[in-house]
Amino acid sequence: MEKRLKPMDAEQLREYGHKMVDFIADYYKTIENFPVLSQVEPGYLRNLLPDSAPNQPDSFQHVLDDIQAKILPGVTHWQSPNYFAYYPSNSSVAGFLGEMLSAGLNIVGFSWITSPAATELEMIVLDWLAKMLKLPEDFLSAGQGGGVIQGTASEAVLVVLLAARDKALRRVGKGALEKLVVYASDQTHSALQKACQIAGIHPENCRLLKANSSTNYALSPELLSETISQDLAIGLIPFFLCATVGTTSSTAVDPLLALGKFAKSNEMWFHVDAAYAGSACICPEFRHYIDGVEEADSFNMNAHKWFLTNFDCSALWVKDRSALVQALSTNPEFLKNKASQANMVVDYKDWQIPLGRRFRSLKLWMVLRLYGLENLQCYIRSHIKLAKHFEDLVAQDTRFEVVTPRIFSLVCFRLLPPPNDEYHGNKLNHELLDAVNSTGNVFVSHTVLSGKYILRFAVGAPLTEEKHVNAAWKVLQDKATALLGESLR
Ligand SMILES: *Cc1c(COP(=O)(O)O)cnc(C)c1O
User: Which residues carry this modification: N6-(pyridoxal phosphate)lysine (predicted)?
Assistant: First the structure.
C-alpha cells in the first residue's frame, strides 16, 4: 500500500489555515492572561518534548494542543499591551496578512526575473515611505539611489559599511584597509561594532566617541572634529560616520546637520540609523529630528519596530546604489538572464548579504494601504502621549527621577539612590526591575548611562492603552514601596 504525501493540498490549507487563524485570534484575545515575560527556567522544553522527530504523522489538533501547553509558556509576549521592554516589535492585522501572503506565495526574489512584482513593489513602497518621511529625492528609485528592505538594522549598517569601505579603497588604494577609521558615539547600537568586525576594520579604528549627559548622550560635533583631525595627522583615513536618531539606550538624537558637514568635507560615508525613531518622523511635528538627512549617504528605519509591520522589515535607502552593487554583486552563469544582463532592472541580491530574499514588501504595502498616513501618524502620537503621561507619573513621585528628557515614546527613569551612594542606587534599581518583571504583569528593561542603572519604559505595543500604563506604574510603585521598606529595616 503506497501512501503519497500531499504537502500542499489546497483544501487542507483552507481547513488548517482557518483553524490557525482562529488560534492566533484567540491568542490575541487572551494575551493578557499570560505572564508578559516568560517565567520558564533554561532548558524547560527538553523535558516536555520527545528526543526525536515522529516516524508517523501527528494530528494537527495534537500539535495545537502542544503549542498551547508547552510552547506558549516559553513565549515572551511582545504583543502584550503590558510589554514596555527594549523597543516594540509591532504586529498588526495588515502586517500579518502581508506576511501570510508572502508565506503563501513563497517566492525567492533575488533578481528581478525571479518575481518581477517582488522587486518592483519593493521599489515602489520604499519610494512611498521615503516620501512620507520627506527624505531627499536622491533616495528615491528614480535617480541613482533607492530603497531596499533588509532583514534588520544590523544588516543595513553592514551593507552600507561594506559599500563605503570599498568606495574608499577604490579612492585611496586597496592596501589602505588598515588605515580606515569609523566614527560614531558610544551610544551607537552594537550592530556597528559587529559590522566593523565583519568588514575587517582594524579594531582600534572603530572610534566610539564618548557622549554624556551634557549633550543628552548625543554625539558632539566638536569632539568628532577633534578626533578626525588627530587621526588625519597620524595618516589614518576617516571613511565612515554613523549617526543615530533615537539611540537604543535613551533615544538620543545626534545632530545630523553638523555631523553631515564633517562627513562631507572629509569624503566620508554618512549613515543615519533611525531604526526606532524614524517612524515618528512621518509626523510633521517630529520630522525635524531628521533635519540634516539631506547630508546622509544612507538612512535606515525599522518598519518592524514601531510601524505596524510584522518582523522582519528594515527599510534602508541609499543615494548611490552603485556603491552597494560594486561591493556586493556577483554574476554567476546560473543566474544570468536577459533583463539583468541588459542592466534594465534592479537585482536586489546585489544590495544585501544573502542571495535569497523574501517578498517582504507585501506586508509594508498592506500596512500603508490598509491604514494610510493619517492613521499611522495618530498611532505614533498616541504612544508619545502615553509616554508623556508615564513621564508625568514618574515626575510626581519624589522617590523617582526621570533621568534623560523624554523625546519619543521611551521614558528613562530610576529610583533615586540614597545620598552619595550610587552603588546602592544601582543595586536598588536592579532589584526593582527583577521584582517588577517577575510579577508577569509587566515587562520593563534597563540600561546603564554614565554608570547609573536605569529602567527603560518603552510605550509602543499596538494594544497598549492608558489603563495599561497606569497599571504598570502601580506595579512599579508597589514594588518600590516594598523594596524601600525592606532597605529601611
Ligand atoms: C533596534 C535598533 C537596532 C538593531 O535593530 P535590528 O533590526 O534588530 O538589527 C539598531 N539601531 C538602533 C538605533 C535600534 O534602535
Answer: 305
Mutate to test the pocket of ligand 1, among 87, 152, 190, 290 (most ligand atoms within 8 A of CB): 152
Ligand 1 midpoint to CA 158 (Å): 12
Cβ-Cβ contacts under 8 Å for 168 (sequence gap 6 or more): 176, 180, 237, 239, 240, 267, 269
Q: Which residue range forms the structural domain that includes residue 339?
A: 108-358
Same domain flag for 166 and 313: yes
Choose which residue among 187, 249, 273 to substitute to test ligand 1 binding: the one with the highest number of ligand atoms within 8 A of its C-beta: 273
Ligand 1 contact, 271 CB (< 6 A):
no
Query: Cα of 102 to ligand 1 centre, how many Å?
Result: 23
- Domain co-membership, 49 together with 159: no
Indicate the DSSP class of residue 37.
S
* 21 contacts: CB under 8 Å, gap ≥ 6: none
Q: Which helix (H) or strand (E) holds 222?
A: helix 221-233
Q: What is the pTM of this model?
A: 0.97
Residue 274 beta carbon below 6 angstroms from any ligand 1 atom:
no
Look at phi and psi of residue 246 and say left if phi exceeds 0, alpha if psi is from -120 to 50, else beta.
Answer: left
Is 156 a pocket residue for ligand 1 (Cβ < 6 Å)? no
Statement to judge: residues 50 and 170 lie in one domain: no
| pLDDT at position 487 | 61
Sign of the C-alpha dihedral computed for residues 313, 318, 322 and 324 taken in this order: negative
Helix (H, G, I), strand (E, B) or coil at 111: coil
HSE (side-chain half, CA atoms, 13 Å) at 305: 25
Sites in the chain below the pLDDT cut of 70: 1-2, 487-489
pLDDT score recorded for residue 343 = 87
pLDDT recorded at residue 485: 87
In a domain, 99, yes or no: no
Dist. CA 26 → ligand 1 center (Å): 30
In a domain, 420, yes or no: yes
Residue type (1 letter), 131: K
Q: What is the pLDDT of residue 207?
A: 97
Give the Å distance between the CA of 299 and the centre of ligand 1.
13
